[in-house]
Structure formats: C-alpha cells, structure tokens
Automatic annotation (TrEMBL):
Highest taxon in the source lineage: Bacteria
Keywords: Cell cycle, Cell division, Cell membrane, Membrane, Transmembrane, Transmembrane helix
InterPro entries listed in its UniProt record: Cell_div_FtsQ/DivIB_C, FtsQ_DivIB, POTRA, POTRA_FtsQ_type
Coiled-coil regions, chain positions: none
Keyword match Transmembrane helix: yes
Cell location: Membrane
Domain POTRA: 41-109
Protein name as it appears in the record: FtsQ-type POTRA domain-containing protein
Source organism per UniProt: Crassaminicella indica
Residues that span the membrane, as ranges: 20-36
Lineage: Bacteria, Bacillati, Bacillota, Clostridia, Eubacteriales
Main location (coarse class): membrane
Length: 249
C-alpha cells in the first residue's frame, strides 16, 4: 500500500515540475518577445544634464546613442568613452532609465586662462588641460613665461618646466578662490612672479610661497587702493614682513 502511495506522489511531483517548467518557458518566451520584439525598450528620449558650454545636441551626437536603438544594446562604457573625446567634458556618467530613456550627466571643464603660442592663445582649464586654441584670449587671464613646443587639444599641456606650470595653476586657483580679477600672470622668473591687474597696476609675489595668505593680503590692499581711487603702481608682497607699494613714475 505504501509503495502505491509513493508511486502516486512521484507522479504528482513530476507533473508539478512539468507544469512549472512549461510556465517558465512561457514566461521566458513572452519576456523575450516584450523585450526584443516590441518598441517598449527602444530609446525614445536622451536627457542631458550639467552642460553649459557644450550644447545638448553636440553631447547627444558625440555620445553615439541613436534614438530608436534597443536600450540594452547601447554600451555605457562606449558612450562615456565617446564623450571623453570632447576636451570640455571633465566627467561623464551615463545611465539607462528603463524602459526607454538614456540619461547623460556631465561635469564640464571651465576656461580659466589663455597661454600665448605662435600668434594664438591656448585656452586651458585650472588643471592645465588644453581645451582649444583661439586667435583671442577671450578676456581670460593670460599666463606668460611657459616654454613648450607643441600641444594636444584634450591633453594636459606639456611644458619644459613642469613646476613652473604647476605654480602658475596654483596661483590661478588661488586668485579664483579669493575672487581677484587679474589681466596677466607672468611666471618667466619663478623667483619673481608678477601679477598684472591692468597695464599700470601690478604686484610682485616672489616665488608664490604661503600663497593663500599672500593673496588674502593682496585682496585687502587692492580694496584699499580702490577706495582711494589709486589705479597705478606696484604692490610688493614678495618678501616677508609688511607689503609695500610704490606709485609708477
């Protein structure tokens, strides 16, 4: 009797397994049809965030994403790699938003300074990345005194003296932090770096040591000169001790 019951149980279990297997097959087939044979997962919209300099149209074109393509066939890695070909793209983060949206979030590099080179200017960001070349400095601060023979757009500028560029960029970042407007930064002599605010007003900052403190002092001096409507002269904060000022002869 027991053997008879065991035989029935086995048949029931086998039948259940068969039904479950068929259901799984059916679900898989239906899922496959929905995912790959309908328009539900075809890309219908590309959203772009974080851009101010680069247009949305330019980003979409450079991403390589094609509207109407299946969303799962798009390679996130390839899309991000495509976007990094644009020098202005600092970071790119691409995500799928199922069922039919691609979202691109970028952080752009900002133009910070212009470096003279063969009758043109190289426009760089605060990391020294060459963003583009131009016939105009675009009212950006000009960095003078760097020696180099060539450049690549989308790459950090390679100069003869890396410490010279590093100091120049450190000063640029400090100037931005302290919100000081300058016209030109001359690092030709690393021991006698000069900041020009106008053609008639400049500042000697020496080697630029203890930079944050010196720039804070400089900002106060500039505010004082501005209140006194003094627009000419040379400020000297290159030495230890009190800063000095002398009018231009």
């Amino acid at each position: 009797m027991k053997k008879y019951h065991k035989s029935i149980d086995k048949k029931v279990k086998a039948r259940k397994k068969g039904i479950i297997f068929l259901i799984m097959i059916l679900v898989s087939v239906v899922s496959f049809i929905i995912i790959f044979k309908t328009d539900i997962f075809k890309i219908k919209k590309i959203e772009v965030y974080g851009n101010t300099t680069i247009s949305k149209e330019e980003i979409v074109a450079e991403s390589g994403i094609i509207l109407g393509n299946h969303i799962l066939k798009e390679s996130i890695k390839d899309i991000e790699s495509n976007l990094y070909n644009n020098p202005y793209v600092k970071t790119a983060d691409v995500k799928r938003k199922l069922p039919d949206r691609m979202v691109i979030q970028i952080v752009e590099r900002e133009e910070e300074a212009a470096i003279p080179f063969m009758n043109e200017f190289l426009i760089i960001d605060e990391d020294g990345m060459v963003l583009r070349s131009s016939t105009s400095n675009g009212n950006l601060k000009i960095i003078k005194g760097l020696e180099f023979t060539n450049f690549i757009e989308g790459a950090i500028l390679t100069v003869k003296d890396k410490s010279q560029l590093s100091k120049a960029l450190e000063i640029v970042r400090g100037i931005n932090k302290n919100q000081i407007l300058i016209k030109e930064l001359d690092v030709t002599n690393k021991k006698d770096i000069i900041i020009k605010f106008t053609d008639n007003l400049s500042c000697k900052i020496g080697e630029g040591n203890n930079l944050d403190y010196r720039l804070k002092v400089l900002k106060k001096i500039l505010e004082d000169l501005n209140q006194k409507k003094i627009i000419r002269g040379v400020i000297d904060i290159s030495h230890e001790g009190y800063p000095s000022y002398r009018p231009v002869e």
